Amino acid sequence: MSDLVAVILAAGKGTRMKSNLPKVLHKIGGKPMLEHVLQAAETSGATKKIVVVGFGSEKVEEFLGDRAKIVLQKEQLGTGHAVLQAGALLEDFVGTVLILCGDTPLLEGSELKNFYDLHKASGAAASVLTASTTNPTGYGRILRGAEDEVLGIVEEKDASTEQKAICEINTGIYCVEAPLLFNVLKTLTCDNAQGEYYLTDILLKLREQGEKIGGIITKDFDMIMGINSRRQLAEAEVIMRTKILNKLMDDGVTIMDPASTFIEATVEIGRDTIIYPFTWLEGTTKIGTDAIIGPNVRLTNVEVGNKTQLQFLYGHDCRVENNVTVGPYVHLRPDTVICDNVKIGNFVEVKNSNVGIGTKLPHLTYIGDSDIGSGVNMGCGCITVNYNGKKKYRTTIEDDAFVGCNSNLVAPVKIGQGSYVGAGSTITKDVPANGLGVGRGRQVNIEGWAEKYRNS
Ligand code: UD1
Ligand code: CA
Asked: Which segments constitute the Nucleotidyl transferase domain (predicted)?
């Protein structure tokens, strides 16, 4: 077995969140807090991850899948009791246990690795990662002796007024050698203000047993922020968002208004792309160079090429290639590919369709289950009639066809290459290449009709 195993505590209800959802599944940066902690544990070098679940365990287990080993803490009797539950999976383990909380989503793996290295180098049996802050409210305080050595940790609810003034806090992250850890956990008691088995008490106990304990200070307080309430969730969101946006700006992306721009960590954006306000970019979205995105654009899992301009639209699970302009008020739905140089104007919806190079869908059009070639012009108000109430059918429009305004193309149907469709047509039969399809009632003019009508 490897030297470093991570135990992640995720059994607590998160009472202060006032939620039916387990706290660790609340999202930050579009992903559950626990996902961020798992990732940090993975980058830290831990080869095995054990997650302690309890409140809402089915939901947490469903989220975890086979990403980690799972142990159940039936009753939430405290953080010490929670770690003890992992003991059964680590009976023969000799090495370091990295203890993490599922409610510290801003953690970074590199910081954990550094902490582990320092712990190893110090030769301590147990080390706690600490941080200094001007507002220590809610955290356990680190007690240090005359020579600055760590004596133990006191929880806020058990602290004296003097202890409450201490500004060095417990991040809730520890490296502890096994099997020592599980032996000392068995000796914990719950005679404290919360009546819980506090993990924090192991430091004092190990010290009493003559073991070396240590405290390593991290400089980045934001990174270890614990989320206990919705207010803190929002604070952490801002911190995470700012980090993501700063990195994009450092890499050459213009973000006009960071306060109204929401971009997930998974999103990639090329140089010299400009992001206008009120833009949401999510999931696997990837944007090329020199694009202009926004204002008011939401993209979920969308691939966007270079020099493409999108405004006021929602796109999901689709691809928009290079030098395309789309918007305003457009919905691009799954399995759609918009090729180079296409122009899509206002009030257009495209679903499960391919739109070829240089084609124009300027206004008020529905394209569903269609294959449109290149150089096609769809007039205002055209509809591909893809659904008969039972089944869906495809429409094919070949290169350079011109579909007149307000036409219905009733699928399955093919509009041949270079052909024309007369405005106002309902097309139910294929139109041959270079032909004209007209499907509408003929106009009749009746001379003098209006005069007669007025006088009748
Ligand atoms: C804990 C620490 C505190 C530290 C703070 C850092 C203790 C006693 N206190 O306080 O010193 O400053 O974290 O953020 O450890 N959990 C379980 N089972 C339980 C109880 C909790 O799995 O029975 C899990 C929770 O899901 C959570 C983590 O442990 O992920 C921490 O619990 P929480 O109640 O948030 O502890 P804090 O009061 O924040
Ligand atoms: Ca907490």
From this structure: 6-220
